[in-house]
Amino acid sequence: MAVAGEVRDEYGIFLTGAGNEGKVVSSWRKRREVSAVTGIPVDVFEERVIDKYGVAQRMSWAAFRETTRPEDQAYCLLGIFGVSISPIYGEGDVKAFTRLQQEVIRISNDRSIFAWVAAPPTEEELEEERQNMYTHSAAKKDKSRGLLARSPYEFRMPGNVQASNVELIGNKSSYSFSNNSLHIHLPLNPTSSSSGHSGEDIFLAHLLCQSPRSGSYLTVYLQKTSRHQYVRYYADEVFLMNSPLAMDHGQRASSHRAQGSNLEYIQRSRIVDVTI
């Protein structure tokens, strides 16, 4: 439809900041159409203020966007976050999106950037896992992944995740990079049977960010692989808590299944110093 084409074109202008943003907010109808297609709140077009929205929510605005070149899924978000990276066409969508997230982390301590959910396993992957169980094959699918998402699609989770409340951990809210590693303080709790996954080596990391739709706080699974080494685990799942730091009264968000990446934690009471 002609209207859909116009909306998509103007959405691209909005994201890339091509100096023609006025077309996007030119009419109430257009604002509603763009909002319906992208999930971008109408207030963004009316107020032109996006800093009040958390990183995860802003990432979600491009979750279902299609681009001609895969790297543009990352590059189209540069203006949204006010960061700059050199375009390298041919590096692939995952590398481009990783570089984008690294730049966002340098200017923001919003932990909602880690509130992503991997795509659920395909029927073929599930069947392969079932066959491995029956045959006792050692080639089981690795459930670990990196702390960073691979694409905007992994921020598709509904609920408009809010920015994290870093005041809960005070001066431990900053990050630092070292040799492609990320040092970060996160509250960490052992898992219990109520979380759906329990074990001495599996933990819940509190992101201190909330979904206003459910009122719940988001945590992600980590698995300890060595003394100070952890990985993001079951990245196709998040666990919802009724309070930002308490362990009890949580519920598993089974509709958003997932997998994880290499981190290094040094525990200090409830706060963990993480390297990814």
Quick summary:
With 276 residues, the protein is an alpha+beta fold. It has two domains: 2-114, no CATH class; 115-276, no CATH class.
Describe the structure.
This protein is of the alpha+beta class and 276 residues long. The chain folds into two domains: 2-114, no CATH class; 115-276, no CATH class. It is built from eight helices and ten strands. It has helices spanning 2-16, 28-38, 42-47, 55-60, 72-75, 78-81, 93-107, 123-135; strands at 144-145, 175-178, 181-190, 202-211, 216-224, 229-233, 238-241, 251-253, 262-268, 271-275. Strands 3-4-5-6-9-10 form a six-stranded antiparallel barrel. Strand 9 and strand 10 (271-275) form a beta hairpin. Helix 1 crosses helix 2. It is globular. The termini are far apart. The model is unreliable at 1-25 and 247-271 (pLDDT under 50). This is DUF8212 domain-containing protein.
> Which stretches are poorly predicted, pLDDT < 50 over at least 5 residues?
1-25, 247-271
How many domains in all?
2
Query: What is the number of E strands?
Result: 10
Tally of separate helices: 8
Structural class: alpha+beta
Radius of gyration, Cα only, in angstroms? 19 Å
Helix and strand succession? HHHHHHHHEEEEEEEEEE
InterPro entries: DUF8212
Organism: Tetrapyrgos nigripes
Protein name: DUF8212 domain-containing protein
Pfam family, one: DUF8212
